[in-house]
């Protein structure tokens, strides 16, 4: 068996050869995201120590107080990407407003939206967390990016991916020609190809949701969960519930093992949240892109996630994603309740 040692950069260059029109700048942009991920990995992997050492009393080289990890990750992403000349604008889960490219740096033809450290509240209990990114092409006129460049539907993404900081650190991304996973080898500091062309199973026995909200869900969603509990799978096993509270970890498992991840809207109870919790632009759209590229399906229960035209930067949507047969079934039950 030949064990190919392929770095992300080599894999991107090889892919690029098949798409001559794609110039090197996309590869360079991805390399900058990878650099940011390595710096974030370095801090996340010793988070417990920094908590113990009371790192918040430190002042770093920039004269700033050392920040909480999610704020740290946000600064790393911005600092690694704002001067590379490939981006015309950015947006982050941590920033209320769009992040312009500083005037002193050249503006490029790509747009980056990201959640720098999703699930960061789980770090204290050593549960996997992750960074999520979505890349679009600039569509606005003029040199610098505008809000319209950020508010694009997910089907127009040029690429998307996540880094999961778990028992191993992995980069999973797609540029429209399949989903590929790379595992970080800390001894050489490289992400090496470990999961080529990831394909999600057509159906799965795992459902992933916060059942604590069960009573707030719509009848169709409740029916689906009860069905998952009652239905035996082909192997005559009952379904399993797996939920970490970190979207990146739950989506990563869903990609590999199949089944469905769902964060429905909460339509009943004292504090209804019909749009749910997850953000469209830098959580659901990039994850939907990956799930579809791996042969799965992702919707808000009624509409394909990638078709939703965003109307605001931090817009939330209900999210159902995973094996196509699982998502089709919950969509059928939601349509039935609406009939
Ligand atoms: P809940 C983490 O805070 C996050 O944004 C996602 O990573 C995760 O899927 C979700 O929220 C968990 O939310 O309400 O179940 O704690």
From TrEMBL:
Cofactor binding note from Swiss-Prot or TrEMBL: Binds 2 magnesium ions per subunit.
Record-linked Pfam families: FBPase (PF00316), FBPase_C (PF18913)
Residues binding substrate: 118-121, 210, 243, 277
Predominant location: cytoplasm
Recorded metabolic or biological pathway in which this protein acts: Carbohydrate biosynthesis; Calvin cycle
EC number, as in UniProt: 3.1.3.11
MF annotations from Gene Ontology: fructose 1,6-bisphosphate 1-phosphatase activity
UniProt entry tagged with the keyword Transmembrane: no
Binding site for Mg(2+) 1: 93, 115, 117
Catalysis: reaction(s): beta-D-fructose 1,6-bisphosphate + H2O = beta-D-fructose 6-phosphate + phosphate
Enzyme class: hydrolase
Residues in the signal sequence: none
Domain Fructose-1-6-bisphosphatase class I N-terminal: 6-196
Cofactor section: Mg(2+)
Binding site for Mg(2+) 2: 115, 118, 283
Annotated keywords: Carbohydrate metabolism, Cytoplasm, Hydrolase, Magnesium, Metal-binding
Domain Fructose-1-6-bisphosphatase class 1 C-terminal: 200-333
Compartments, as annotated in UniProt: Cytoplasm
Cytoplasm listed as a keyword: yes
Assembly with partners or alone: Homotetramer.
PANTHER family: FRUCTOSE-1,6-BISPHOSPHATASE-RELATED, SEDOHEPTULOSE-1,7-BISPHOSPHATASE, CHLOROPLASTIC
The family this protein is said to belong to: Belongs to the FBPase class 1 family.
Protein name as annotated: Fructose-1,6-bisphosphatase class 1
